[in-house]
């Protein structure tokens, strides 16, 4: 695995020039577009890592998986799915028209901004701080890394430029999808997006999700049904508007973030964490998707 | 005219039972659904009034006409129309999908909520208070009534239940349509919606607009081109989603509000103010529309 | 008037270079983009004409006014408006999404393709030929020109390239908006679009519509209420997606066609016909709109 | 397996009363809503069947899987995916607005009507008959049943009531998505929808797809990459607007049809065919979905 990972990472690194770092906030734009790290951790704990795997980055939309899991841990699924749908969206990740034109007015799924903000309403905690700490605590547990925290500069930038998300939140408030305070939910949302870690941390989280919620030593952190639900939603809607294409080419439940990270979970086999901040037009890591494709083809990882 | 007005008002009053008062805030819901007042003021100053013409009510969306006029007085038209379109909208008055799916991302016209909020950005004044006072001052001048003010209870209720408008405003902020502070613009917007007056005040305002911006005594309050622009937009989009039907049946530039008011302007002839808070499904006064239809047919008022 | 018309036509002719002839069928594309003719006929019969007023062209969407009038002559208005709305559309003239997303599923108005095809269902006649002849007969009567006919080459081209209209028609068939045979309605629709005449013919038609349906000699061709309805719909939706802007700048009930024609009706004053096939981005004659603006400003023609 | 299948089928049969047979054509409506048959065929050929497994029914939308496979067999994938997307659609299966409002104008995926009609353009054959026979031939091969044919009465009914599909096809013709004759493609499309078989035939087809395109004896009928692509698309979009929910609850690549059939494929394990024509609000078999849920839970079939 180590050899495969090194070889493919090296071979695919030049693709970085086809992408660009996220530009909507300065902190993301200044990332090194040539950075490329990857880590694979199997469910038995075996670990391979390559390249810039020590580099820390904000997980951005990958946090949606963690918030969704907290949401399902803290609130009965029935209640959650009354407010949040799980169907895929062909529209952009921050589309508001979808909220209005679809009959249910429900956010289409927990992997788009509207859905993730609505999830935050179901995460335990009365304040933004408490909700954030709830998600951070789970993240630290799954990653086995109590040092994980958020990047305050990125958090502040996101909050400052977050008018589109504010619009989504107030819309959902007006239709009764969310009942909490908009500022509380958004604050918590922006803060979990700014959670900072390495691709090794992501791989560690992925390994627990691959193991149906259990660590290599057998300890259960998340009940299996919740893990399976999260993996399903990742498989269907985790890669923005190219989720379908990615499912055909890679076929592994994954979630990408505009910070350049990808969290991938091969059920019963392994967790994969990748960091390569040059993004394609959909907002996912160019090198990350290419590496997932190579690993999937060579190791037969597709679940389909 | 007095006789005609009395006769038609009496004949049409029973229609009130086909409508309902607005229910989204308590202050509007508790209005007397049987109230029905009307006033006609010709451009020469002749006045006829009938029924509950002394009743005060909040003008709600009728304020959009006044804000739009202020906006054109305070900012060059070219600049205004770069941000606000003047095409009609078949969608609901508070639709957000329109903002997203139309190529320009501009609010469709100044008579829908999004457009009216955007107008407020172009009204003179740095604070909500200043912008409100700007519109209030024009209103007092046009109505020749320095006692006109806003209803604080209604303003507070609207602000409290205004999440949909907040969503619209943050959306426009995110796309650069508005540049001012969302809270400032909304505060001013909610406050002008709560401007309170009688239908006689409305008729007085209408008379000035009918007279191309001049009072009966010849004093110019608003330049004629701005008045014509306002009348055109009223004719095309003033009656929510039934603007087209109303144009065929009545054919008079008008604007209705969910407080039960209608402001109608017959160019070069008269201003008409009506108050009758039982609303139809589109949010306009049932008796008001019926009375406008009767007056238009009998006096040949249609501009088309 | 003759002098004014000559002067303005000459002054505005250079604007033609800012537009382009329609390109979707060869017959329209080969029109001379510099051609520019105009004719004004007052309700008393006085006539002024200038430039290429003898040039024949196909009226295209201007036929929608004539079909709509036939539709109202042949079918009770109540029945028509159960199937066709009269609200404006901010979307493109051939949008199909509007049919699907608006609650009523009704075409938004008779001036867009879907509405005009639906109108044809209400025009008297069992076959395409009969329906076409019905509209052609009215056209000849209003224009006082029994020689008016259609351009067979244009008709065939339109029919051949009419898949978008076929899609609209089958959609309306599937939702019950139209009940007749799709091919019959489309054939009649494409044929009236290919009606060929001069701008003098258009002005003559306009003069009758300006005179509430009566000719200069007082003969009634169309009842006044139907004429008023047609003028209202023209004023609100006659100029494609710039109807609102045109209403502010010109303010005269008008309908344009991609053949380069404009039919304008100033109530109780005059009919205006223009031909100048260089089109702007919305599909209306560049020189035609400019000339209407000049005439409206100088003669005070705006109805608003 | 046989025991499990009998037990669950019997236990779930009463759910039929919660659904209704399809009503848009008479032939489907007259199906017995209490019919319920199921068949499981493992990749090694082991077969279990229960209930009304000898009942023949038309496969309707299940044919979309077969047409898609033919399309990929007959045309390079690159060419296919230039015209047909593979993203999920939250809109109804026959939505046309999606075609218009999404930037690409591509049908969202091959499992909705628009996509399936577009697929037919890429299936070998010049005539409707040839295209139909191409899909029928593959179907007979996969099901190992040369007696499979289509139901002429259902085909004629569908074609007669197919205006919505005609609208979709002409729309795609107008945007260049399809290049063939609309009537040819629709005829072939309606005909494959009317392919008639038993749930045992479906299970047999499913077993081949489960075996990566090979029969139990090892013969390859379809290359593995095409089979995987088909399974992926089924997993993401096979169950109309409840594909996401079904993925969470069942997690098996499946396709349902309004004839009451479900084709399910558990990779490397088994094919499942179900027939139970009482449908839920989305158009899928009520008992079929319930049975799939039970089998998935008890046998651990979810791929996620």
- What is the CATH superfamily classification of the largest domain in chain A? DD-peptidase/beta-lactamase superfamily
Write the CATH architecture name of the largest domain in chain A: 3-Layer(aba) Sandwich
The tally of structural domains of chain A comes to: 2
Report the oligomer: homotetramer
The largest pleated sheet of chain A is described as: 5 strands, antiparallel
Helical fraction of chain A equals 40-55%
Tell me the number of strands of chain A.
8
Q: What do the pLDDT scores of chain A average to? A: 93
Number of helices of chain A: 14
Report the CATH C-level class of the largest domain in chain A. Answer: Alpha Beta
Low-confidence stretches of chain A: none
**What share of the residues of chain A does DSSP label as strand, in percent?**
5-15%
Largest interface: A-D, 33 and 33 residues
Shape of chain A: globular
Physical arrangement of strands within the biggest beta sheet of chain A: 2-1-8-7-6
Secondary structural class of chain A: alpha+beta
The string of secondary-structure elements of chain A, in order, is HHEEEHHHHHEHHHEHHHEEEH
């Amino acid at each position: 695995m180590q050899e495969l990972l090194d070889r493919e990472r090296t071979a695919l690194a030049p693709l970085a020039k086809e992408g660009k770092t996220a530009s909507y906030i300065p902190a993301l734009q200044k990332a090194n577009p040539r950075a490329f790290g990857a880590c694979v951790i199997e469910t038995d704990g075996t670990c391979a890592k390559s390249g810039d795997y020590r580099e820390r980055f904000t997980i951005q939309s990958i946090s949606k998986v963690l918030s969704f899991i907290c949401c399902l841990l803290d609130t009965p699924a029935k209640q959650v799915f009354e407010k949040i749908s799980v169907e895929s969206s062909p529209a952009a990740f921050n589309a508001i028209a979808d909220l209005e034109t679809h009959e249910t007015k429900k956010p289409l799924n927990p992997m788009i901004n509207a859905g993730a903000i609505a999830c935050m309403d179901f995460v335990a905690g009365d304040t933004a701080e408490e909700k954030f700490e709830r998600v951070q605590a789970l993240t630290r547990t799954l990653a086995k890394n109590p040092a994980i925290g958020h990047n305050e500069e990125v958090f502040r930038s996101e909050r400052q430029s977050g008018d589109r998300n504010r619009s989504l939140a107030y819309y959902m408030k007006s239709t009764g999808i969310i009942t909490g305070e908009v500022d509380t939910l958004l604050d918590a949302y922006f803060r979990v997006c700014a959670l900072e870690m390495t691709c090794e941390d992501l791989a560690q989280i992925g390994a627990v999700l691959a193991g149906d919620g259990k660590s290599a030593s057998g300890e259960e952190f998340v009940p299996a049904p919740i893990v399976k639900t999260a993996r399903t939603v990742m498989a269907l809607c985790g890669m923005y508007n190219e989720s379908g294409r990615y499912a055909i080419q890679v076929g592994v439940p994954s979630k990408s973030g505009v910070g350049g990270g990808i969290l991938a979970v091969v059920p019963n086999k392994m967790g994969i964490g990748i960091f390569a901040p040059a993004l394609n037009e959909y907002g996912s890591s160019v090198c990350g998707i290419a590496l997932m494709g190579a690993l999937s083809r060579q190791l037969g990882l597709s679940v389909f």
